[in-house]
Amino acid sequence: MAVNQSSKMPLWLSVLVAGLFVVGAFWIGNSQTVSNSKKNSAGEDVATPTAPALAKTTAQRRPEDAALIVREPGKTPPGMAWIPGGVTLIGNAEGEHEDERAEHEVALDGFWMDATEVTNRDFQKFVQVTKYVTLAEKTPTAADLPGVDFSQIDPENLKPGSICFTYQYTGKKIDKSHHQWPYQLWGYVKGANWAHPDGPDSNVADKLDHPVVHINWDDATAYAKWAGKRLPTEAEWEYAAHGGKSDWAYPWGNDQLPAGKWMHNVWQGEFPYKNENLDGFPESSPVKSFPANGYGLYDMSGNVWEWCSDWYLPDYYAFSPRKNPQGPDHSHDPNEPGMPKRVQRGGSFMCNVNYCTGYRISARMKGTPDSGLRHTGFRCVKSAP
Ligand SMILES: [Ca+2]
Ligand SMILES: [Ca+2]
Fold first, then answer.
1. What pLDDT digit, counting tens, does each position of 286-306 carry?
2. From the CA of 217, how far away is ligand 2's center (Å)?
3. Which ligand has its closest atom nearest to the C-alpha of 265?
4. CATH architecture of structural domain 11-383
5. Domain locations along the chain
6. Contact, 304 vs 225, CB < 8 A?
7. Which of 85, 245, 322, 344 is most buried, judged by most C-beta within 10 A?
């Protein structure tokens, strides 16, 4: 495997250079440590569900918080929900990952948020009106990618495409000796893009109500601008996911399976060997397939990851401003230095208790802005005037 960690080569392009063994860990989730485990069919230790740790403190209002925008200032835009301003705790002091543990208080002005992830139908309209072309649909050129040594790339691989999960490892023991072992699970698929999510032979004709995928951060930002909206900040996203309950682990409460019912589209079974499909959706699901949270937002947990506007810094929570934090002014991921990343939230249909619990409200994720993936989309917000 030839992965140059210090390179500024975009990750999706790294796939062209190095082949299959390149991308993945930081989109499907950091591997986690949980106390319970059992052996899977490949003889590996796998996790079993544990109760999520919850915040121990509560947010405290201050006199200046009286100035926050709380009441909806006008008519709710179509397809959006009003998120009333307020004070809340972001993060979880006992969360599973270090980057979510600096629990802190934020005070946010109210805003509108898309009730659902942006769908293929929504994005199709955007493309029809604007003729916008996503990065996955463009042939990589030296002009587009200054600093990239194109001599490393087989010309045959310089074709438009995007990164898809490969299922060829089902039943096969995966080499987990390297911390980036999930790279084995992903591959660059020529011709894969939002309109052809699994490659040239696929399309979205029967998926118009599914979330659009293979959208990188720039594509998402372009859509949001066209729609007169913007991407949410990380704090706005987490606050909205709470649905008015700051100490819930999930948008519906603290029990992942209330009365044994699946409340979100995630992965059941031993990832990546077997998808037991207990929630009825082995891949993405039509938006609104599961109940909304207290603010009327759907799929804030699971289905597809959602881009936020913030740069990702693992220790940002330690110095985040209290009022309307906009994220840090730079990015650093110690696992992949030299690759600035934007925040992603909410987990996806590939998240699973034995690997990635990105579907927890406080879980943080990140991706390079140029990387669109099969399980990553977005939703927009709109500021109060
Ligand atoms: Ca599922
Ligand atoms: Ca989602």
1. 999 999 999 999 999 999 999
2. 15
3. 1
4. Alpha-Beta Complex (3.90)
5. 11-383
6. no
7. 344
